[in-house]
Amino acid sequence: MPVKPREPPPPLGAADRGGDAGGQFRGKMGVSVGDLIWLAAAVMAAGVVTGILAGLFGIGGGAVIVPVLFEVFRTLGVPEEVRMQLCIGTSLAIIVPTALRSYRAHRERGLVIPGVLQQWSVPAIIGVALGSTAAAVAPAGVFEAAFSLIAAVIAGKLLFGRESWVVAGELPGSGVMRVYGLVIGIASALMGISGGSPVTMILTLYGKPIHNAVATAAGIGVPITVAGTIGYCLAGLPHQAMMPPLSIGFVSVIGVVLIAPISSYVAPLGARLAHRLPRRWLEAAFGLLLLLVGLRFLVRLI
Question: Which is higher by pLDDT, 164 or 260?
Fold first, then answer.
């Protein structure tokens, strides 16, 4: 039986030959250099917006970073089923250095309540682990709903809360405190925050001075953000194919590298603006911002 001659292979295209840098990059990573540059530019713009808003409202940034990143990743075409998880994981990673630096500064001034950190750290980490595990299996709508609910609670305290609102003059027993720590960890992992807002709210409701509450919130933010970053990196590995370039699981390395320094640099601009406005106006404005963001995610679910 005669052997059929082998047909010559088709001519190589530019991408196959590596005729340009974009072709070489696309062949290795599935994305062009132009796509990578666009992602970097969009995230840098998000860093500017985040920094101004964080400085304006005096917050760590998680409640602002998540909705800003959501719009960036939506524009870049990140699939909806993993977009919210990517925003939350990236937000937690961005906040790590800020939480650590803030905690050290507050600890040097002796404002941190050590007993609270001891009671809350382990339950908070367990809560973060539960939230991170949910990120691997739960639909994105769960996280959007959780963000909306938690944002509404925080917004309600900001808009309608008073300094006279006190549940008790002393903190509850160790059992209730551990439950608080667990809830704070879960809420932080589902919302992409360091726990500052719920921690401050709980401590002030038990009569603790606001400065001690903020300092303690910074302390609990360190284990929450570190554990959350690791958890979201691991949870997103099965979905790696849907992630934007240079991501580790549900954490965008580009987002962390670009937003963290840029937001820190720009934040003083927002802070200077904040000094010109009454504190009550800022609380009301941030409360309204959280309500709008929460409604924006809620509308998507309807």
Answer: 260
